[in-house]
Write the structure tokens for this entry.
Amino acid sequence: MMKEIPIQKLTGFRFGHAQNSDALTGCSVIICEDGAVGGVEVRGGAPGTRETDALKPENLVEEVHGVFLSGGSAFGLDVANGVMKFLEEKNVGFDVQVTKVPIVSGAILFDLYPGDSNVRPDSQMGYKACIMAYSNNVFKQGSAGAGMGATVGKCLGSDYVMRGGIGSYAIELGDLQIGAVIAVNAFGDIIDPVTNQILAGVYDRSKQIFLRSDKQMLKQLEKKATNRFTGNTTIGSIMTNAKLSKSQVNKIAAIAHDGFARTIRPSHTLVDGDTLFALSTNKIETDLNVLSMLASMVVENAVMNAVKNAETAFQIPSHSNLEKCL
């Protein structure tokens, strides 16, 4: 029987956040010190990533020791240095004889607005997130870590956005475990695929109604301005103990983007940098078709949890804020 479990119950992985609440930015880390077979799929047209080429099936390195998700736009890639420093101190990494080199992949999202654009996640914040991954703290969802400054529904600009965030979801089916951590900073609206209801998106605060990104984009087409929007991206990682080759884990990352497509409308736009990593501790034999289905499912639920748990900030409404008003 399938049951939901806390993300921190996934065997072989550790999860941690660090953030600056005043500046509305932060980062999140996933640590797999024993190594995990890693893959990635980049679908968005404006990605910001690190060490994704190393994850291609034809390349040498088989295992990843950490993945980071960070705000700060391209500046946030500095988080990797802190994660590498932390893992090196633990003697974790790819053995090159003279030392061990931690393989740390990651992706960034744009959150330089509405917070302080001069404050960005850096190596110190990355190091702190690793420390938190080894604490007994609950992995917070919503306005935390890489989701601290995330927003969604951006087609009409900053006056109509709502709060995004970071979400997680994990399940256990017999000995099989699979989960996802997703930082949602999407251009489009966030949809519950079961009810087809908008959870967060482009929102008229005075009329208290959703305006629907798809409708607004069609109107913008008349003005020939649909490509002028920047500052988006939904990034995350799937974690599992399924036995997978490097090619298979890359395929799982690709298929799991279906979870984005079902919950983010539109998704994978030219102004999003949508990126999904996949990590496997390579322990449990399973049916790959079932695993693919579950990968998409945990991504869907993590995306929804991100916005459902977000908190209102800088007068930008959140899903929970709207629910209280109903």
Q: What stands out?
A: The mean pLDDT is 92. The two ends are 36 Å apart (CA to CA). The chain is about 25% helix and 30% strand.
